[in-house]
From TrEMBL:
Entry keywords, A to Z: Cell membrane, Membrane, Transmembrane, Transmembrane helix
Protein name as catalogued: Chromate efflux transporter
Pfam families: Chromate_transp
Ranges annotated as spanning the membrane: 95-119, 125-145, 152-171, 231-250, 262-281, 301-321, 333-359, 371-394, 418-436
InterPro entries reported for this sequence: Chr_Tranpt_l_chain, Chromate_transpt
Membrane disposition: Multi-pass membrane protein
């Protein structure tokens, strides 16, 4: 039985929508409320909801889209949402999926930023969220297991995933080099190991119905020069218009213009996710522009990690504080809101532009054996990338101090055992039992852990 033969499954509502648009909106909104834990946790949410539960997209197609998104600057999980939304419902589906993916985080971080400025401390709220970060450690571990189990079907690809993890975690190899090497390795593996060229029937092996988006189906939207020029013109105009407006209204030397230009630039160089660029953002925001203090940058990062959405959302907190303290002709609160929203706009608009421009071409290249082999190599490396992010998140969640140590060519991040946070460890272990043993839902697990976090914070155990 195919996906569309099952009367219980949604049917296309027209020639473009594979599922009813309202149903897609409800699903993307539900996903957006669970996007804690950085890209690894966010990818895990989409993997479980779209691939395993609803079966709207097959594992191979999911991996193909993820591999392309890993090549792009910006938050790869949000771009993956745009890509899958585009596959399901065309351009409006991509816009809806990408917007809903970040909307709860925007609202939550705006509220927390305002509370921070108004009351000078977020101790109570941080205590409430203190349970979410340890829970995410377990969620990310589950993501590594699920994505790896379905994607690493040959020993050569398992080896490639381990090599990618070692390159990032032990040798601090730049992320773009890891992805480029993975693409070359994937091509070589397919050439010299013909058995890896056969795509495994992952969807058929678990006994469930076939996905709505079959691996061999082509998307209706064909790439072309006219389409490319139209989307590029519209996207660039939307990206630049707010920046041009604040420059005209408040001057080129205003805080708003400086923030718009700076974060427009960072949106183009965030290869490898937020962690790869946050050090540069912190250096410039703290030392070059003076928008906030080093301690406030750390607190902003903690808040961003504890709210749904991409971790790069921390730039909104940075802009909020910077504009509040240098409001120009506006009131501090109006300036803070403008700075935060402008920064969010210039950070995420390029994500939509990259997907709408590139996705149709990537879809047509799925039948190319050389491109498919390269992307399969990237998919294998992605498992190692997620594992490295999981390790990074665990170290910085369960320990107060993590030291950089060099042993010859090895560049390690080693936590100080004396700074272990017992409350965070207990919550992480509890979350692991709830997720792996009891198979609780993510939202239910996060709710329990948030309550435990508040309790341990009040008891001084974190």
């Amino acid at each position: 039985m195919t996906a569309t033969d099952d009367p219980a499954r949604p049917r296309p509502s027209d020639g473009r929508d594979l599922i009813p648009f309202r149903q897609a909106l409800r699903t993307w909104f539900a996903i957006s409320l669970q996007t804690f834990g950085g890209p690894a946790g966010q990818i895990a949410v989409m993997q479980r909801t779209l691939v395993e539960e609803k079966r709207w997209i097959g594992q191979q197609r999911f991996n193909h889209a993820l591999s392309y998104c890993m090549l792009l600057p910006g938050p790869e999980a949000q771009q993956l949402a745009v890509y899958i939304g585009w596959l399901l419902n065309g351009t409006r589906g991509g816009l809806a999926a990408g917007t809903l993916f970040v909307l709860p985080g925007i609202v939550a971080l705006l509220a927390l930023s305002a509370l921070y400025v108004a009351f000078g401390t977020t101790a109570a709220l941080t205590g409430l969220f203190a349970g979410l970060a340890p829970a995410v450690v377990a969620i990310v571990a589950q993501a590594v297991w699920r994505v790896g189990r379905r994607s690493l079907t040959h020993i050569a690809h398992i080896t490639l995933a381990v090599a990618a993890f070692a390159a990032l975690a032990l040798f601090a190899v730049p992320f773009p080099l890891v992805i480029a090497a993975a693409a070359i390795a994937g091509w070589l593996i397919a050439r010299y190991l013909p058995s890896t060229r056969t795509l495994p029937a992952e969807e058929a092996s678990d006994g469930g119905p076939a996905p709505l988006i079959a691996d061999g189906a082509l998307h209706h939207e064909r790439p072309g020069l006219r389409r490319t020029l139209r989307i590029a013109a519209i996207g660039l105009a939307l990206w630049a218009a707010p920046l041009a407006a604040v420059a005209a209204l408040f001057g080129t030397g205003s805080t708003f213009t400086a923030q718009g230009l700076f974060f427009s630039g960072t949106a183009l160089v965030t290869f490898g996710g937020a962690y790869a660029v946050l050090a540069y953002v912190a250096q410039q925001a703290v030392h070059a522009y003076g928008w906030l203090t080093p301690g406030e940058m750390v607190r902003g990062l903690a808040l961003a990690e504890s709210t749904p959405g991409p971790l790069i959302m921390v730039v909104q907190f940075v802009a909020f504080l910077g504009a509040y303290r240098d409001p120009g002709t506006l009131t501090p609160w109006a300036a803070a809101l403008l700075g935060a929203l402008l920064t969010t706009w210039v950070t995420f608009v390029p994500c939509f532009l990259f997907i709408f421009l590139g996705a149709p071409h990537i879809e047509r290249l799925r039948g190319n054996p050389h491109i498919s082999a390269a992307l399969k190599g990237i998919t294998a490396a992605v498992v190692g990338v997620i594992a490295n992010l999981a390790l990074y998140f665990a170290e910085h969640t369960l320990f107060t101090t993590v030291d950089a140590v060099t042993f010859g060519p090895l560049q390690l991040q080693l936590p100080d055992p004396a700074t272990l946070r017992p409350g965070a460890l207990a919550i992480a272990l509890t979350a692991a039992v709830l997720i792996f043993r009891l198979r609780w839902s993510m939202l239910r697990t996060l709710g329990i852990c948030a309550g435990l976090g508040l309790t341990t914070a009040l008891a001084g155990l974190t």
